[in-house]
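Feature request, filed as a ticket because there's no other form

It would be nice if the structure record came with a short human-readable summary line next to the tokens. Right now we just get the raw output. Example of a typical job, pasted below so the devs can see what we mean:
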Amino acid sequence: MLIAGIGNIFLSDDGFGVEVANRLSVESLPGEVTVRDFGIRGLHLAYEMLDGGYGTTIFVDAVPRGGQPGSLYLIEPETDQLGPAAAEAHAMNPENVLALLKTLGGMPGRVLIIGCEPASVEEGIGLTAPVANAVGAAVQFVREIIAREQVEVH
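Raw output as currently delivered:
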């Protein structure tokens, strides 16, 4: 299983996925779980998924959906509906990473997105209060998914 923190720490709440990955990276997790901060390196993430042989990938990212800032979402994208994509370094989001993976000849296993409603993605370092408050809940959410996936696998 791959836990991929995504986001730009220089755009305030866009750094949510990076912060969650950083917190998870110091926790004791099962050996078959890899946690990485991919930041804005979507191309690197697509290649990691291509080469890593992960059964499940969890993207953690800021996901604007019109809810209250700090709201968490669990999204399971339709990966078989994605078309090919060109590598565009400035537009890397989970959908583009998955489309790029498909273009490279790979197919993801199960993909989940844990998204957090941002309050601001304007230039600035640091999460806003509602998003910073959601980091702990997101870490717990990831841990619950890991536990559930291990039960399904074994």
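Something like this underneath would help us a lot:
The first strand starts at residue 2 and ends at 6.
Residues 55 and 153 are 10 Å apart (CA to CA).
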